[in-house]
Amino acid sequence: MKEELDLKTIKDAAHRLLFDMSEEEFLTLQSEFKVTLKQMKVLGEIEGIDEVAPMTFPIETKITYLREDVAEEPLSNEEVLSNVKEKQSGQIKLPKVVL
Amino acid sequence: MNNVIYEATIGLEIHVETKSNSKMFSSAPNVYGKKPNTSVLPIDLGMPGTLPTVNKKAVENAIKLSNALHMEIDHTLYFDRKNYFYSDLPKGYQITQNERPIGKNGYLLVKLDGKEVRVDIERLHMEEDTCKQLHYTDFTLLDYNRAGVPLCEIVTLPCIHDAKVARLYVEKIREICVYLDVSDGKMEEGSLRCDVNISIAPKGSEQFGTKVEIKNLNSTANVEKAIAYEIERQKSLIENGEKVRQETRRFDESKMETVLMRVKTDAVDYKYFSEPNILPISLSDKFIEDTISSSYELADVKFERYTQEFKVSEYDALTLLKNRSLALLFDETVETCSYYDLLIHFINGDVLTYVSGMNAIFNLSAKHLGELINLVGEKKISNAQARDIFKQIVKSDESPIDIVKKNDISQISDEATLLTLINRLLDENPTAIQDFKNGKGRAASFLVGQIMKETKGKANPALASKLLNEELKKR
Amino acid sequence: MSYLDLDILSIHKALLEGKTKPSLLCKEALERVKKDTNNAFELVNEEEALRLALKLDEEEVPFDNVFYGIPYVLKDNYSTKGIKTTASSNILNDFVPLYDASVYKLLKEAKAVMVAKASMDELAMGGTGTTSHIGTTYNPYDPKHERMIGGSSSGSAASVSASIVPFAIGSDTGDSVRKPASYAGLVGFKPTWGLISRYGLFSYAPSLDTVAYFTRGVDDARLLLNLLVKHDLNDATSLDVTLEDDESKDEAKNITLLVFKDLDVNLKDEVTKNVYHNLLCKLKEQGITIKEVTFGHDLLAAIYPTYNVISFAEATSNNANLDGVKFGPRPEGKTYQEVMMNARTEGFSNLIKRRFVIGSYVLYKENQKTLFLRAKKVRRKIVERLNELLADADGFISLAAPSIAPKFFEATDKLSDAYVINDNYLAIANFSGGPSITLPIGLKDKMPFAVNVTAKTFDDLKLLRIAKVIEKTTGMKGLSYPEVNKYE
Predict the structure, then answer these.
(1) What is the pTM of this model?
(2) Domain C3-253+393-487 fold
(3) Substitution target from A59, A68, A96 for chain C, most C beta carbons within 10 A
């Protein structure tokens, strides 16, 4: 595991998430990464940590409920589009998506 | 160089949209062909705070499919997130089953030239569909009716080496979907979608060649054609000393060739992790058993039954099984009718023609069809009469027996009666006898026509023509 | 004096006795919302609240529904149909939800009156109350606006603390209710994960997110628990559990509370520490057993980074839906990627973005083993250790925060144990899912400070019973900013 990330990796990570930041913010993030990665490295030294099963849910129980297959009244087309800024013919409009 | 024999290695990923009233994780209606954005709930738009709930029917469909594909079925459901950004993905992630698919380690047998070929299936998992994009010249429109529709993804091992086997496999999957009634399996409407991974390497080589993906094939015929084309394309690249690129292609039907969509750079990292909004769901043994035992009969099982129990020919059985609703009609009709050959021929002939012509669901009761075929079997009416009556019973719910009574339809199968009539007609038509002797085939048909005319169509045509021939030879 | 300065039960009594009316309470609460000087609100729900309250006036106040006509404030990350909800983020500006969160629905059914939606740290990520898109939320106890109220449920805390409403709903992923409760002199209660439906709560990190709330006393916290705990089929993590507490109420006997030596060793503020230690002595006098144990320094220090890795990872995915296409501001763009990129670049503040990047990076295929999965393993280690210690005890107690609310520009040594451990250990209850409560025990420089008690999962009622003992001991029930007179 890397302990320090170069700016290129960090910028790429941001761009993959579809946003950009100022150069200054990237530098701040770089130092935050440094702390986090160092802390995580320390955690790797906890005895027998690799043998522990990852914990996803705080309450590790199984449920048995499956939703009955009954359709609910859907939203009206107006409701669906009520928060949409760019629309046409009852649909959301985007610049042409190139396949 | 030219002596090298190449072998293709093919893996298939099939997405099946399964039938249900509501969507996979959303209670919105699961419908096809509705006005855009009218079968949508907030979760289908990825609205904040919405949470997924797992549709029982979708799980049942997945269990039925897994069982039909001879898979091990997981008794606990786990879901994962597949994270990526795309214009058709409302939440920025898709809920799927990455770590623990509901079905694993299955197979299907397909018949190629009379030999059975095994296709190993690695996994079947449940997931949700994306929204539908309609592409115009300058823009794209998004319809979220499809967003959240239940999908089963069925993934084979890279174990297929033949384009035909691939096609047969897809056909088999489709047949299973249709017979289990878990999907309508329409490739042209996208309810069954097939992606192909294909590479070639010298036969016997330990290593796979570079994998090319072919996406969105819209018919089983195109699956075969695309693979066949792709094998040749890759071969000629290698033979010309070029390299096969890792890329995604699509099949252009008009040119009958695969064309480049995009070159794959680094594989996308989907950053899979366990879905934290759905606790593991325990499926009871009883639920799984009940689901399996309530599955509809598969075509293969019907085929065995038809050929073994009813002794119909393999050809007839296969013809019938191409259409599930007709097979179901057959199954229902044999409850009251045991003229199996007559029945299957009638369904494969008249009924099929009628259904295809109507291009719609028709209203024919198995009880009436059984009566009709029984009348034919008991030689009370002729095939031609049966055909006429059939046209009536699909339009009304009158019973064939009533129609026969009401219209005094019957068939003369009594030899003595027919012989008397034949000899009278022969006596009255000496020219016809002469023509017959001179080898004019028309003479016999003319005489049969006369018999039918005299009997108002009631003479058993087969018997009448047999007796006529015998009598003619005597003269 | 106003009825709004009292707790729920007292206001209910006044309503029953006809001393006030739902509409009067509502009008007064709305007045106070409008005069708010702490920047606590995203939206005033004036019309609807008044309409509802006036309707409630017409009916008789039911004696068995304490929430009837009680004004309250809802954090702006709960979906409210037809009422703008932004989670204090520009990326959700003007967003009007199409459905009601389950919590909001239950409160509506109980005829509680939502007078406003509270400002918060953007998308519930942050613990300072400074990252809302409408700016910093201030601490009513500090009219000079130098000290934090904490977050992320900053506006919710401020609204109860400033006597605007008797209770407010927040949400707690790491300590987002329990920390501000400490700084604002309130009871902050986070029940067991899975008891209260999260349906409609904008997800930050679902495996940690819990509906939590602020009240002026432990009894009110219990009333809300009774109302809100309900199995919800809309939430596939909602649990069907009936809470039980076999002991009679207010009984201090047979209670054992743990003190983690390696946690308390870092407490440096003499004033708050002394009050806390005095409290422990008094609790002992009442029959509560206080047992000192060692948790393990390394595991305590692990809580903070583990929390960061898990919560940022989940958050980066949960917020991938915010792309300007289906809702939220829609910027220009030549391609859909450009549209999304512009929406997200303009819509998120820098803190959020930095957290998303870290959260995304730890999920990379090549990093999962050493980062994301490792954090999930450490989470188990921590929870196992906690459960091991709590096996023979009923909960553990400590100061909820190292001291009173810090100043905005106070320098903290982010690598010190005091910060890494004591300022961040409350997330342990989100790891374990167990109930956890913060309640005030004293004032220093006119600023409140508090203890926190965390118990085993589903021991919510027992925890409230313990908290009640503490509340009686401190006599600090009904604490709110003393200068409420200025509203009158």
Answers:
(1) 0.93
(2) Amidase signature (AS) enzymes (3.90.1300)
(3) A59
